[in-house]
Specification:
Number of helices of chain A: 17
Oligomer: homodimer
Largest interface: A-B, 130 and 132 residues
CATH topology of the largest domain in chain A: Aspartate Aminotransferase, domain 2
Number of domains of chain A: 3
Strand content of chain A: 5-15%
Shape of chain A: globular
CATH class of the largest domain in chain A: Alpha Beta
Distance between the termini of chain A: 74 Å
CATH architecture of the largest domain in chain A: 3-Layer(aba) Sandwich
Structural class of chain A: alpha/beta
């Protein structure tokens, strides 16, 4: 065995510091990187002979193969040279000639941390949302549809069919505005089911709601501009506004939905309003017709835009269908955002924006020369799913399922938690909000429920401003009626035992 | 047949204006919307009796079913009421009581057009990129990999397998940072193939490169901040910078890559640099080691960040592998962006950012409570594709294919266009740039080539500033050697006949 000189030992000692068995980076890559960094920094001089791979392996406490992998890579890149009988040395000249970094001392001063944008600081300040009770959804985690009732076998066949037709076009990804057949199907759907005014040209496919929000903010709002947000409201909307560097203006929500007059008082020149007029999240109220017309008139007068987040209105359980706000808009002020996360399943990252005719060219130009907006395969499969009527059929079926679940939840909440919780009516979608008595903290109740294995979201999590009455948000889409009843029983025991 | 009063005829006349057979909106939806709008505007008064559906159909020149569909919808929503023997009337009270919009005149003043953000105006100003010769790619449209050599049958099996395992978890979409197995596989890939320093926690899956750019800009750059861009450079980077409201600072590129000293002179306090150090787009040069170290030192001193766009470096045809800039970064300044558009296929919208350890929490917090970043199905299938070694095998095979195509293109360009085109060396990827003689407009040459059925991109399309020598960018990834030779022959004839 070749002896290791003192100089080499020192070089090695500084290398060893970097080998870390706790990270998942392979050991050979760690050795490769550490040695390369030391050579570039001048800590290991050109021409230095390295110990044998066997010695290195022993010093580092790793297998010899690990060392050989690292040395081979460095040799291939020109940092090390091997000569017969004289072993491996650091290359006399570094791979790129004419570049000799100044040697650095043994201890490297730590770098200053990266600077963050104001948007990043605001987003980090939001925290990470409600804690979850493990990965499996418990009653009543909001946001999950009845995945066990999704026609997965049929969907799989359509995916396989789209895949087997995998033309060059499918692999290429297609149009930056979205799959033409899907845009057509979406346009027909929003006209028929939501009373929207829409041609396929107005439909821009996105990889989900969040991307749609970001795109709208980018194109119609400048940094620092005020944007009305419902308070309480959907957290993703707030994230998108903060991420765009715009100013979030909280506007209260009452029984008639967003308080338009309050919005006008707080930010009369807002550039954008984000709201869910058909089924406010999380309170579940509907924007009254008076407020709808007032909002549209204000937007037209101020040249403001309205982002209508119509996330689950397909699931109207009862009563006459509510037309989308977009369908009442004569002035081209409404950008209508829809998603397939609830109507299909959340793992399908597909959504869309319907833009007013005057903005079709702008949205098109902003996407020009970019790749397709979402998975080509899933866009094609969804176009077929809609074309063949499976989508409309699935919606019809789920309306009945969610009505049954909503009734089970409302009935049990009234009979078991009547003195404590005051649930709002629920005629749409898959979640509802129940108010707590004034003065009772929903965070405390949430924690108590969690200890009983029940996952509910505190209303205060959705508030942009402090104060206001506490409440609990229940998701019931993924929970069967029997489990709904058992869950409410557990919750009631937890509430009453306190 | 019921007679139609003069009053009703007037109401109808104003409705008829809106029925438009050229749009794809169904006629019944148009009638529904037009009538609803007129009722809300007070143009058709509460209590007005409508003509029979038969009369309406005749007046409008549509089928009676079409009219019935529209009337049924309005009746369901409470805008119309039907009584036995007295026909259909506008509801005496509108669906929402207490709201009576002021009647408007017959001619509605056109609304002011929507306001656009500065970012939108800048993006629209970019134009829509080079015209394309139809949908099918011709030689030599840049950016397309050899899709006919992609192992589509194998991939389809893995997609089907992931789909058949479609657990609740897959349908739910999973972690907002990405599929855990895919993050692990990406981390192993960038360490082994690109010499990056990376643990799975540092990997954030995205729906492609553009989303990765947008996310990085959102979190490390404030609106108005200067960002260095390579000039000429990748157009998508410029779109992302403009979309974020940041200031694009063009930095020239020479034989050693981005001119770091010029960048420091132009914007010494830039917050971000976006570049492709391993294979500059579209010139194809490599950032020299000296420039790499100078860039990293400057970034560390100025607390600037570097976005390394490593879009095709897996396809290094020959020579020793080049380590990613990220692998040399001791100070945590590099955000490494990779994509599967080239290594797999563009229709798969999957990419990733590897963030420095100090930014893992920030990127995580910014995504907290959001849905999964991309298709759950394709993430799962790709994780398996990588785990089982198919990805590495496909890369190895494609390296040989692209080497052969690069050689065919270079050989033919030299022998057939030697006097006119001066191709740069090509040891990586699937496109190359050939310079034109000084004074020759690449736009003119592009047009002449297009008339000969050849699609090349003019270098000036990629420039951020006017001037500079003209050149042509050739994509050869999707073109077989025989077609490459034929294509260059056609191009040569077009060039020489002028």
């Amino acid at each position: 065995m070749r002896t290791v000189g003192a100089d080499q030992k020192r070089a090695l000692a500084s290398l060893l510091l970097r080998v870390d068995r706790k990270t998942s980076a392979p050991l050979h890559a760690q050795i490769d990187q550490a040695l390369r960094a030391r050579i570039l920094a001048g800590a290991v001089k050109p021409g230095t002979r390295l110990p044998s791979s066997r010695t290195l392996a022993a010093e580092l406490g790793v297998a010899r193969t690990t060392v050989l992998l690292a040395l081979d890579a460095l040799q291939a890149e020109g940092y090390l040279v091997a000569a017969p009988r004289s072993g491996v040395r650091v290359a006399p000249e570094l791979p790129e000639q004419g570049f000799a970094p100044a040697p650095v001392g043994t201890a490297r001063a730590p770098s200053a941390p990266p600077r963050l944008s104001r948007a990043a600081r605001a987003l980090v300040g939001l925290g990470t949302g409600a804690p979850r009770l493990g990965a499996a959804p418990r009653p009543f985690r909001p946001g999950l549809p009845a995945l066990d009732l999704f026609p997965i076998a049929l969907w799989s066949r359509l995916v396989a069919r789209a895949q087997s037709r995998a033309s060059a076009r499918l692999l290429e990804g297609g149009d930056p505005t979205g799959h033409p057949g899907l845009r057509q199907a979406i346009s027909e759907h929003v006209v028929a089911a939501r009373g929207a005014r829409c041609t396929p040209e107005q439909v821009f496919v996105t990889a989900g709601t969040q991307q749609a929000f970001e795109e709208v903010l980018r194109l119609v709002v400048d940094p620092g501009d005020p944007v009305w947000l419902e308070d309480p409201g959907y957290l993703g909307a707030r994230r998108a506004v903060l991420g765009a560097g715009a100013r979030a203006v909280p506007v209260p929500v009452d029984d008639e939905g967003l308080d338009v007059e309050a919005g006008v008082r707080r930010a009369p020149r807002a550039r954008l309003v984000i709201l869910a007029p058909s089924h406010q999240y999380p309170l579940g109220v509907t924007l009254s017709l008076g407020r709808r017309m007032a909002l549209l008139r204000w937007a037209e007068a101020e040249r403001a835009m309205i982002l209508e987040d119509d996330y689950d209105s397909e699931f109207r359980h009862r009563g006459r269908p509510l037309t989308a706000l977009q369908g009442l808009d004569d002035a081209g002020r409404v950008l209508y955002v829809g998603t397939f996360s609830k109507t299909m399943f959340p793992g399908l990252r597909l959504g869309y924006v319907v833009v007013p005719p005057a903005l079709v060219d702008v949205f098109g130009a902003a996407r020009a020369s970019l790749p397709a907006p979402a998975s080509a395969l899933e866009q094609a499969a969804l176009a077929t799913f809609m074309d063949e009527g499976h989508f409309a059929r699935h919606l019809r079926r789920m309306r009945g399922v969610y009505r049954e679940r909503a009734e089970a939840l409302l009935d049990t909440l009234r009979s078991r938690c009547g003195g404590v919780l005051e649930p709002s009516p629920c005629d749409t979608g898959m979640q509802l909000c129940a108010m707590l008595p004034r003065g009772v903290s929903d965070l405390v109740v949430r924690d108590r429920a969690a200890r009983a294995g029940i996952e509910v979201a505190p209303l205060s999590d959705y508030r942009l401003t402090r104060g206001g009455r506490g409440g609990l948000v229940f998701g019931f889409g993924a929970i069967r009626p029997a489990a709904i009843r058992t869950g409410v029983e557990s919750l009631a025991r937890a509430l009453h035992s306190a």
